[in-house]
Each structure stands twice: as structure tokens, then as C-alpha cells.
Specification:
Helix content is about 40%, strand content about 15%. By secondary structure, the protein is α/β, with parallel strands linked by helices.
């Protein structure tokens, strides 16, 4: 699955009141690996920026005056995100703004362009109920360096969110089982009339990787790794 981690900055909080997108930042992942194929654009909103919003992202009307309008980059943006799964923190906000921009041009909404949307705020709330789940809080939780984030910025925030998303969902890809035996696997025939049962033995490299993953789980769970606890129990 190709995934695009996306963030926007805007002139204000409500597109229904005329607020517009002024920055789009995206990073691409393929098979949970960052490809370094980014999409980043500043945009001229053709309207003033609310003081509260400017205090958050630091973007001024003067800086954006010579930047392209959304209509000028829309085709490139749509081509970049087409058929990908979007990963967005507090997705309803960004999706609402982007659908508004696309709608103003008579273009299809995101649900017609993309494969789907993962809201990392919802994922975080399911994993950490009752706790702070802002991007900064999640960076702190998962040990991701956000020291360069003095102000909000769409590309920087998308890069940080990609790291947070990978940390939050680490191990989920291992739920996909490969039922075909590896070429090095041996087999043992059991006595009786039944067909021989193949016994697949882990290699030294696989055992080392297993131990590494358990160590990561123990670190992230503050020592509450059930598998390690079970191994430590007396026989």
C-alpha cells in the first residue's frame, strides 16, 4: 500500500467562513518505508490570515503574495495523492479544507481520488485513552525528536507524523502470515499412517530478530512485555 502522510496550514479554522489552505506538506511511504518523495507547496490564499492562525504557523500575507494559487498546483497535487491511502492527524480538519479547495475548482473530493484516510488522532486515542494526543505529545511518547518544531509547518509536521504513525503501528505488518515454507526449512516424518508433518525451525538470524523485537516492545511498554515475562517464569 502506498501511503501519503499529509498536513496543511490554513488562514483560519473554518473553510465555511472563507478560510483557505496556505501550505500543503506530504511525505510518501511505500510498504511502510519513507521514499523521500515529498510534495510541498506554499499557496496564495487571496485573503487575509487570521492573527490566531498566524501565531501558530508564522506564515504572513507578504510571504505568500508571490506563491501560486491552489488552482495552479491542483492537478499536480491530485496526481501525487491519487490512489494512495492518506495518513492525517485530526483528519476531518484537513480533509474538509482540501475538499473545499477541490470543490471550488469543480474537482472530485478526496474519497474519489484516494484509497482511504487513516486518522492518527483516532488511532492515538484508541491506544492512549484519556491522555494528551497532540503531535508534540506523541513525539514525546515515542521518542521522536521534534526540537526543530518551534512553529507549525506542514512539511515538518508531516515528516514527524510519519515517524509517529510508524511507531504507533509497529508490528502490525507482521500480522500478515506467509504460509509458504522458507527454502532452508527442514522436515521431520512422524511415525504412523499420517503424512509427514513439516517442522519449520527458526534460523539464528530469525531468533536474533525475534529477540530484538521483544526488546523494543519491552522498552515501549516500560517493561511490561508478556512474552519476556513468560520466558522468565520457572519451568
Amino acid at each position: 500500500m502506498r501511503q501519503i502522510v499529509l498536513d496543511t496550514e490554513t488562514t483560519g479554522l473554518d473553510f465555511r467562513l472563507g478560510d483557505r489552505v496556505i501550505e500543503i506538506g506530504c511525505v510518501e511511504m511505500s510498504a511502510r518505508k519513507l521514499t523521500r518523495r515529498h510534495f510541498h507547496r506554499y499557496l496564495n490564499p487571496q485573503r487575509p490570515i487570521d492573527a490566531g492562525a498566524q501565531a501558530v504557523h508564522g506564515l504572513t500575507s507578504e510571504f505568500l503574495a508571490d506563491k501560486p494559487k491552489f488552482a495552479e498546483i491542483a492537478a499536480e497535487f491530485v496526481d501525487y495523492i491519487r490512489d494512495a491511502e492518506l495518513v492525517i492527524h485530526n483528519a476531518a480538519f484537513d480533509v474538509g479544507f482540501l475538499n473545499n479547495e477541490l470543490g471550488l475548482l469543480g474537482l472530485e473530493p478526496l474519497d474519489k481520488i484516494c484509497a482511504g484516510v487513516i486518522d492518527t488522532l483516532k488511532v492515538a486515542r484508541d491506544l492512549r485513552p484519556g491522555r494528551k494526543n497532540s503531535l508534540d505529545a506523541l513525539c514525546s511518547e515515542y521518542g521522536i525528536d521534534n526540537s526543530g518544531r518551534q512553529l507549525h509547518g506542514a512539511l515538518l509536521d508531516a515528516e514527524l507524523l510519519a515517524e509517529v504513525y510508524l511507531a504507533m503501528t509497529r508490528g502490525q505488518e507482521s500480522l500478515m502470515m506467509d504460509l509458504s515454507p522458507p527454502p532452508h526449512a527442514g522436515s521431520v516424518a512422524l511415525a504412523g499412517d499420517r503424512p509427514a508433518l513439516r517442522v519449520l525451525c527458526a534460523t539464528a538470524d530469525e531468533l536474533a530478530e525475534h529477540a530484538r523485537v521483544l526488546k523494543e516492545i519491552a522498552a515501549e511498554s516500560k517493561g511490561n512485555c508478556l512474552w519476556l515475562a513468560k520466558d522468565a517464569m520457572p519451568a
